[in-house]
Amino acid sequence: DGGITQSPKYLFRKEGQNVTLSCEQNLNHDAMYWYRQDPGQGLRLIYYSQIVNDFQKGDIAEGYSVSREKKESFPLTVTSAQKNPTAFYLCASSPPPGTTGFNEQFFGPGTRLTVL
Amino acid sequence: GENVEQHPSTLSVQEGDSAVIKCTYSDSASNYFPWYKQELGKRPQLIIDIRSNVGEKKDQRIAVTLNKTAKHFSLHITETQPEDSAVYFCAASIIGDSSYKLIFGSGTRLLVRP
């Protein structure tokens, strides 16, 4: 899991601004995921991507957008349409099917977003 | 869609005692059940997992049991230590499903009192 990084660690945003959270992995994983974590709640899936140039909405995709132009990168944009964006955001990746541990998700260190 | 419920939300035990966290899932097609541990301010990490063709799996002080009929699975930690204090998440997914999605429970905050 040391091969998946997120930046920045802390991010402050004014209301009405879009912000982009970075997620990079050098694990050669096909699948990547974005989760949102709120206090006292589990990990809720925002978007996921199984392959370059393809991604699907998760359970709480409204107000978010993603891109997957490179295998290593899966940036998340939090748009002004997201009503309550203050949260801890976790990115994860998992190995290709058929490889050892392909169902395991490896998490990045997270980005804590605060809307001022 | 799949839903995973986790109980209790908080658990406090004395060092050396056992801790049990329980989860239930809704999709009978689920066949993979991992447990993640998240220490304060850190990323979740896989600690143990079980597949539906197995009823129990053990790794030192940690064990997971699965009851497919009742659709629930549990994490057991024996001889708890202060370093076991963390938030634990259960999850469920379907191996072979094209989405590879994990559905997480809401988490259990475990406090081990010295």
Q: Could you walk me through the main structural features you see in this protein, from its secondary elements to its overall organization?
A:
The complex is a heterodimer of chains A (116) and B (114). By secondary structure, chain A is mainly beta. Chain A is built from no helices and eleven strands. In chain A, the strands form two sheets. In chain A, strands 2, 4, 5, 6, 9, 10 and 11 form a seven-stranded mixed sheet that branches. In chain A, strands 1-3-8-7 form a four-stranded antiparallel sheet, with no helix packed on it. In chain A, strand 5 and strand 6 (54-57) form a beta hairpin. Chain B is globular and about 45 Å long. With 114 residues, chain B is mostly beta strands. The model of chain B has no long low-confidence stretch (mean pLDDT 92). In chain B, strands 2, 4, 5, 9, 10 and 11 form a six-stranded mixed sheet that branches. Chain B has a five-stranded antiparallel sheet with strand order 1-3-8-7-6, with no helix packed on it. The interface between A and B is medium-sized, with 25 and 25 residues.
Beta-strand percentage of chain A? Answer: over 45%
The tally of beta strands of chain A, per DSSP, is: 11
Q: Largest interface, per-chain counts?
A: A-B, 25 and 25 residues
Discrete helix count of chain B:
0
- Low-confidence runs of at least 5 consecutive residues of chain B: none
Strand content of chain B: over 45%
What is the first-to-last residue Cα distance of chain A? 31 Å
Largest sheet of chain A: 7 strands, mixed
Supply Rg of chain B.
Answer: 14 Å
- Content-based structural category of chain A: mainly beta
What portion of residues of chain B is helical? under 10%
- Average pLDDT figure of chain B: 92
Query: Whole-number average pLDDT of chain A?
Result: 91
Sketch the topology of chain A as an H/E string, one letter per element: EEEEEEEEEEE
Q: What overall form of chain A do the CA principal axes indicate?
A: globular
Q: N-to-C SSE series of chain B?
A: EEEEEEEEEEE
Low-confidence blocks of residues of chain A: none
Oligomer: heterodimer
Q: Which percent range fits the helix content of chain A? A: under 10%
- β-strand number of chain B: 11
